[in-house]
Each structure stands twice: as structure tokens, then as C-alpha cells.
Amino acid sequence: MIETHAHIYDEQFEEDRDAMLRRAFDAGVKQIWMPNCDHETINGMLALENQYPGVCIPMIGVHPCYIKENYEQELYIVEALLSKRPFPMIGEIGIDFYWDLNYVPQQEEAFIAQLRLAQQYNLPICIHSRNSKDGQLNAIVRCIELIEQFGWSDLRGIFHCFSGNLEEAQRVIGLNFLLGIGGVATFKNGGMDKVLPSIDLKHIVLETDAPYLAPVPHRGKRNEVAYIELVAQRIAELKQVSFQEVVQQTTENALHLIHK
């Protein structure tokens, strides 16, 4: 399996990170893709890349929740790193209406700036799109609109932690993006039981978002990469296919994305 989204550099793993990773490897995880948040997460992420070369794979980008007044400095750091060494993906980037609406214009500017970087380096992107607490502001739709306005037909990537409806899933797929499916698929009211049966496996990749959003039966506790097995099992149930078919197809999807 390929874990396409885990914050394994997070301080929640400080006490048992190597043991946590060993459990992931024992569960069959072959690669772990690490999304970046801002300049403070880069060193920890790159240290894990050095410790587990070819296994722990770093992205580079500025997470929308970390976009503040100094967002241009954060973007400069990303640009500088991209000019010095290769990364397989820009991420995680996007729009977050959940936590703080004060910097939404800056989030949008940063998103567009990072789409330009993706085009410049011909890289896929990893999108964070979280709706407002009242559900009135739809971040998935806003990201789709910004991508359409940007207009680069070769733009591709993953809508991480996808939790939208079937229509939104189809719009995402129509833009040549994959759906990142994680623990929400196991939640009773997560809504994925109404979406995934209608989505071909070729449009799906696996993720955990560890240490966040642990799947059932670990919901509410610290998430970890080994739990990706539970996500794959749930997708297999909803799709009425074998666990192995889910693993094989999602792995192919992930590898094709970063080696395209």
C-alpha cells in the first residue's frame, strides 16, 4: 500500500515514531507521502526522508491553515527549495473555511501562486479543502473553481481527505484529480457509503492523515499509518471487491500520479 498523506513528523509521534513506522511497514505500507505545512515542518520532514530514503517521500507547499500575514515569505521558502532539489508533489495547499476566515483572500492568492509552481515544475498537487462549520462555505467547490480559472489542462493531483458528495467527486475526477480516501470512509455518517460505490477504483488513493482522523474503531484517538489497512478494507466493502484489488489499484494510481 501507498500512504499518500501522513504527518509522521508531527510531535504526537515524538515518543514512538520508529515503532509506529515499523507497524506501518509490517502492515504492508511501502511508501509514506508527507505533506508539508510551513517552514517549521520542513526540517522534520526532510530528516525522515534521510532516515527512510525512498520510503518517506516529502512534498513541499504551504498549508492553507498556515497562511497568515507572512504568507509571501512562506511561498518564497517553497520556491527556493523547489529550485534546489526535486519534490514529487506540491502540497498540501488549498482552501480552509473551517478554522479562520480572516485570511481567505491570502489563501486564494497562495493557492494560485502554488498552482503556478506546479505548472512551472510540471508537478501534481495535494489539495486541502475543508468546508465551513455551518456547511455554507464549500471549499471543495471553491478549489474546483480556482483550478478551472487557472486553466492549465495538465494540472493533476489529489483532493486529500475527500468528504464531498457524488456530484463533487465527479467534478474532481473530471479535472483529472484523484480522491484521497481516509478514515472518514469508516465513519457512520461520513457520507462515503453514498459516494464510493459509484466511483471507479482507478480514481482513488489511500491515506490516513495521521495523526488526525483515525478510522473506526480508533476514532477519537491518535491516528497512525498502519490503520490505512482499515481504510482499504472499508473501501473493499463499499465497492464489493477484494481487499487485494483495492491495494493493487490504489497503488498503481498513486505511482502513476507522481511518475507521469
TrEMBL record:
What GO cellular-component annotations does this UniProt entry give?
cytosol
What species is this protein from? Emticicia agri
Which keywords label this protein? Hydrolase, Metal-binding
Q: Which residues bind a divalent metal cation 1?
A: H5, H7, E92, D209
Q: What protein name is recorded for this chain?
A: TatD family deoxyribonuclease
Q: A single Pfam family, by name?
A: TatD_DNase
Task: Give the family this protein belongs to, as stated in its UniProt record.
Answer: Belongs to the metallo-dependent hydrolases superfamily. TatD-type hydrolase family.
Q: Which SUPFAM superfamilies match?
A: Metallo-dependent hydrolases
**Superkingdom:** Bacteria
The record ties this protein, via PANTHER family, to: D-AMINOACYL-TRNA DEACYLASE, HYDROLASE TATD
Q: Which residues bind a divalent metal cation 2?
A: H128, H160
Q: Which GO terms describe its molecular function?
A: DNA nuclease activity; hydrolase activity, acting on ester bonds; metal ion binding
Gene3D superfamilies found in the cross-reference section: Metal-dependent hydrolases
